[in-house]
Design goal:
2 copies of one chain form a homodimer. Chain A folds into 2 domains: 5-90, Nucleic acid-binding proteins (OB fold (Dihydrolipoamide Acetyltransferase, E2P)); 119-274 and 319-420, Bira Bifunctional Protein, Domain 2 (BirA Bifunctional Protein, domain 2, 2-Layer Sandwich), CATH 3.30.930. Helices cover 31% and strands 26% of the residues of chain A. The first copy, chain A, has 13 helices and 16 strands. In chain A, the strands form 3 sheets. Chain A has an 8-stranded mixed beta sheet, with helices on both faces. In chain A, α4 (123-145) crosses α6. The first copy, chain A, is elongated, with a radius of gyration of 26 Å. The two termini of chain A are 34 Å apart. β8 of chain A pairs antiparallel with β8 (169-172) of chain B.
């Protein structure tokens, strides 16, 4: 019966004369005065094995060892296993393309992505996805706790709602369909149907030709939509609650993983005091920051502006989080609810200088939607499916989407969002 | 401040002289001796409103009402609201295509799917997705409790691992990629990487030209994979534990929803006593059942055989669940681990006469995989990505996938699996 590395210390303390079995990967091998020390890696951590005969395996071999657990202050974790018998379960074939047990900073991103079965063996790289798993769990738990229903909607759509140019085309039984850019239409359908509060965690697609450290062509979108809101401010409050909970869960469950990156997450107080800055004011703040640092004026909430707003919020409010609201109509899709002729009830959440969320209140009135379309150069006949959702009545509502990889990236301070995707897709990469 | 229908009784008992506000959909209107009774529907249930003036709205209007809560034995739930003021929030435009408040059996499946914002207002139709939400939650919770990590993998793949003919093609920046049929390669990569235990809940695609009540071209696949197993029997035990937990959670959280369908879920004992029948024996059992009922002999575990095996297991073992294992090699993909020359360490789970799971132990040895390929007419150069996962060592492992819609369908006894998909895709349907 296998036991995990993390449980060996207890075995050594309680039953040192009882043999135990461990299984895992050979992380490191060191010879010292005729004795071989093998560091074994399993999902729970590292363990020192002490061998009296030189091993016949190389690094990254998967082994099974039986022996006596013993305390040893010099061993990692203060414990080791004196091996009686050892078996190779699976051996690597040929040379490893890179060293697994070192600093992942020395492996390039392409090599990391090319060999996921190898790169994820590095505890620091694996930590990214342990944290991502917590983020997904906490997101779902938070919204379930607020009476949201989890939904799963189709990723194959007859047409796009966010604009037609950035869609991937799918050959579907002799006709063309598209990969969904978001579950926008579907989550709004759920609100109109009286389900009222829904969330979905699913892939979303953008056929953008970007090649930046903040873009993916396929990403995990964590979406919510809810009925009976007044404005985007209700959504911002909800997102604050959600982020505070996610950060709390990550801090609680992923202490080791955060430490590997010397990363911290904001506490609840820091989340709740995040400022809400109207778009025009955000431009002024970003411009003032820019000019104070010798850059030019800012005319748009672009990546540069997002970073300046972070500088400002850290200094003025002691928080990594800023909400920008009241985006102008021209910057938002046709379905965004107007605040007045120029502004909308919309918002972005910026975390550590990166937009992680876009959201807002939506237009729920069928006739108002019909009136809005021509202003956006859209025709009702091309949006039949979308419009039909509102034909039988729909409560005032809104929602937002959080980019899972971006949130992961910013929690850990990763340079590239691709590091936070197991199998990222970009213009060049579709393998593995 | 809005309160929900389900909380009105408590308000009537505790503070009948305090006004409360409710919001929801007009489910039914009835006039009786100058008084109008409106049944309001909100996410929590139904509530009778008493109006002294005839209303100016029709069925399915979204309203907001303020009034005094009062106990009334004749009202649904024993409580009603005497309305003081009322406001229309959103009105349906034109005639409803069908009646929302009736028996959904009278609405055809196509009409249900064409108008989801309407059909989901029917409490019985909505119940399907309340249960599906519990299934997804319970699946994730069960595997997290067993130290599995949730992963999210790409749905765009360079090639298929399950066979090349049933793939949807995607136009991806001037090259062709495919929609993933399963996360097979990716979840195995995770095992090889030492993450060891992973699960994923995500869409999967099959470009099959089926048009049956059991097939979808896009479905929600609940996948798991784990390292260090001996045989498919370890997986069957795991699946039993999972199913017992899911059923328990559905019974606990969805009592009302099950009642609407007069449905029950098996208890834990019934799940754990499910028989495990080797393929050849299953054929004999199904044939005997078939012949006893005047049908011909069974030569394959086809839908008919699955139903006969259910009859048998109900009668002989008092359970809705049967596992068939040891499928012949010719029926299983190349990566299935052999038990001997003919049989494999594979299994299906049949629930109430329908296959809801396929799984098995996989071949983890690189050289054994290379040897197996020609027997399946496959060439190593076409499976480079797949093979590379095993090159640096991989523990013995296996996994399975549960079809979320099929499990939902069989819990409720739905005729067609499409009823258990919010926006199903088949050969003809890509809208809404």
């Amino acid at each position: 019966m296998r036991i995990l590395a993390k449980d060996i210390k207890q075995a050594a303390q309680e039953k040192p004369s009882e043999k135990v079995e461990v299984k895992g990967w050979v992380h490191r091998i060191r010879e010292l005065g005729g004795i071989t020390f093998v560091i074994l890696r399993d999902p729970s951590g590292l363990l020192q094995l002490v061998l009296e005969t030189p091993p016949e395996f190389t690094l990254e071999t998967i082994i099974q060892a039986v022996g006596f657990p013993g305390l040893n202050d010099k061993a990692p974790g203060g414990v080791e296993l004196k091996v009686c018998s050892l078996e190779c379960i699976s051996k690597p074939i040929g040379e490893l393309p890179y060293q697994v047990n070192g600093d992942p900073g020395k492996i390039g991103i392409e090599a990391i992505l090319d060999h996921r079965s190898l790169s994820l063996r590095n505890p620091k790289i694996r930590a990214i996805f342990k944290i991502q798993s917590t983020i997904i769990e906490a997101f779902a738990a938070y919204f379930r706790g607020q009476d949201f229903t989890e939904i799963k909607t189709s990723k194959l759509v007859g047409s796009g709602t966010e604009g037609g140019t950035e869609l991937f085309e799918v050959e579907y039984f002799n006709r063309k369909v598209y990969l969904a850019q978001s579950p926008q239409l579907y989550k709004q359908t759920m609100v109109a149907s009286g389900l009222e509060r829904v969330f979905e965690i699913a892939p979303a697609y953008r056929a953008e030709k970007h090649d930046t450290p903040r873009h993916l062509n396929e990403y995990v979108s964590m979406d919510i939509e809810m009925g009976f809101i007044e404005s985007e401010k209700d959504l911002i409050e909800l997102e604050k609650g959600m982020l505070a909970y996610i950060f709390e869960e990550v801090a609680r469950k992923n202490k080791n993983e955060l430490e590997m990156y010397q990363a911290t997450v904001p506490n609840g107080e820091a989340v709740f005091r995040a400022p809400i800055v109207p778009y025009e004011e955000a431009l002024k703040i970003a411009s003032a920051e820019a000019m104070a640092k010798g850059s030019g004026r800012i005319f748009d909430i672009n990546p540069e502006a997002e970073r300046f707003l972070w500088d400002w919020s850290l200094r003025e409010h002691g928080t990594d989080l800023v909400f920008v609201n009241e985006f102008p109509r021209r910057h938002r899709p046709f379905y965004t609810y107007p605040l007045d002729v120029v502004r909308t009830m919309s918002f972005d959440a910026l975390f550590r200088g990166l937009e992680i969320t876009t959201g807002g209140r939506r237009q729920h009135d069928y006739n108002a939607l019909l009136e809005a379309l021509p202003k956006f150069g859209l025709k009702p006949e091309n949006l039949k499916s979308y419009l039909s959702v509102f034909k039988y009545g729909c409560p005032p509502h809104g929602g937002f989407a959080v980019g899972c990889e971006r949130l992961t990236q910013k929690i850990l301070g990763l340079n590239n969002v691709k590091e936070a995707s197991l199998f990222p897709r970009d213009r060049k990469r579709v393998e593995p």
